[in-house]
């Protein structure tokens, strides 16, 4: 019975303050945000296209890594798979340890057979 009383008092103190404090999302604002999301997704797709045309493998690696870290990679699975296939087939002439290790990790995560000695 004591537990019920404490819980009951707690709900009276806070009430529905937090529920009321959140402004409802109107349809215009929601539609505007959806348009913004689609525009940004298209910009990211264009980044993949530009990097592929200009053979910027390091930028592609960083873009894929960033999208994965942000949890947005599922929006760009096709572009990421194409970029990683291109990165796998291309020769990366970089002595930068970060770039080499990033290439190794990203390709291994997608199932590519990358020897650790190269």
TrEMBL record:
<protein>
    <submittedName>
        <fullName>(-)-germacrene D synthase</fullName>
    </submittedName>
</protein>
<keyword id="KW-0456">Lyase</keyword>
<dbReference type="InterPro" id="IPR050148">
    <property type="entry name" value="Terpene_synthase-like"/>
</dbReference>
<feature type="domain" description="Terpene synthase N-terminal">
    <location>
        <begin position="13"/>
        <end position="116"/>
    </location>
</feature>
<dbReference type="GO" id="GO:0010333">
    <property type="term" value="F:terpene synthase activity"/>
</dbReference>
<dbReference type="InterPro" id="IPR008930">
    <property type="entry name" value="Terpenoid_cyclase/PrenylTrfase"/>
</dbReference>
<dbReference type="InterPro" id="IPR036965">
    <property type="entry name" value="Terpene_synth_N_sf"/>
</dbReference>
<dbReference type="InterPro" id="IPR008949">
    <property type="entry name" value="Isoprenoid_synthase_dom_sf"/>
</dbReference>
<keyword id="KW-0460">Magnesium</keyword>
<dbReference type="Pfam" id="PF01397">
    <property type="entry name" value="Terpene_synth"/>
</dbReference>
<dbReference type="GO" id="GO:0016114">
    <property type="term" value="P:terpenoid biosynthetic process"/>
</dbReference>
<dbReference type="InterPro" id="IPR001906">
    <property type="entry name" value="Terpene_synth_N"/>
</dbReference>
